[in-house]
Amino acid sequence: MSDRIDRADPLALEQQVCFALSVAARSVVAVYRPLLEPLGLTHPQYLVMLALWQHAPLSVRELSRLLQLDPGTLSPLLKRLESIGYVRRGRDPADERSLAVTLTSSGQALRARAEQIPPAVVERLGMPVEDLQHLHTALTQVIAAANHSGTAEPATG
Questions:
Q1: Using a CB cutoff of 8 Å and minimum separation of 24, what contacts does 35-40 make?
Q2: Residue 66 phi, psi (nearest 5)
Q3: Is 9 helix (H, G, I), strand (E, B) or coil?
Q4: Among 79, 83, 77, CA closest to 48
Q5: Whole-angstrom Cα distance, residue 132 to residue 92?
Q6: From CA 37, how far away is CA 98, in angstroms rounded?
Q7: pLDDT tens digits, residue range 118-127?
Q8: d(C-alpha 140, C-alpha 73), whole Å
Q9: Looking at 3-12, 13-22, 88-97, 105-114, which range is the least confident one?
Q10: CATH of the domain spanning 41-144, picked from 1.10.8.60, 1.10.155.10, 1.10.10.10, 3.30.70.1230
Q11: Residue 3 scores a pLDDT above 90
Q12: In 8-150, which ranges are continuous DSSP H helix?
């Protein structure tokens, strides 16, 4: 076996986009973990809070769409955030069929502490902000392409 990357092998682990994305995602979430622990948040809970800080109140359906999470995955996150006092869930007065999620005063106050997280992540990664912005743009394009490919008709020919 050779340590060199065999570009002729279409199944070489080092050549797989899915492998690089998976390892990168786990590694970046690990950078966030010690920053989120003092806030009492996991990374998925932090994503929920980010959406709510930007858009609250939101229906569970809207939150699910924004985060690209199945409502069944989102529900336990919301229950936990409610139990620690950051959010409140209740029927939307405008549409009783819809469950609305709002921030509590504790959840709103947490935002000030959370504002320290993005610069701390940039510092811990040790990468220029411009590189991270380019990465974000590229990943957003990958997400769009992957979402589009799931609905596109298979090519023939």
A1: 35/116, 35/117, 35/120, 35/121, 36/117, 38/113, 39/110, 39/113, 39/114, 40/84
A2: -60, -45
A3: coil
A4: 77
A5: 38
A6: 31
A7: 999 999 999 9
A8: 22
A9: 3-12
A10: 1.10.10.10
A11: no
A12: 17-36, 43-55, 60-67, 71-83, 105-114, 117-125, 129-149
pLDDT in tens, 96-114: 788 899 999 999 999 999 9
Q: What is the rounded distance in angstroms from the CA atom of residue 43 to the CA atom of residue 45?
A: 5
Q: What are the tokens at 148?
A: 């589009």
Q: What are 24's two structure tokens?
A: 């990168």
* C-alpha closest to that of 96 among 59, 48, 52: 59
- Contacting residues for 123 by C-beta, under 8 A, at least 6 apart: none
Across the beta sheet with 58-59, the strand order is 58-59, 95-103, 87-92
Grade residue 93 by pLDDT with cuts at 50, 70 and 90.
confident
Q: How many CB atoms lie within 10 A of CB 74?
A: 18
What is the distance between the alpha carbons of residues 114 and 46, in angstroms, rounded to a whole number? Answer: 9
pTM value > 0.70: yes
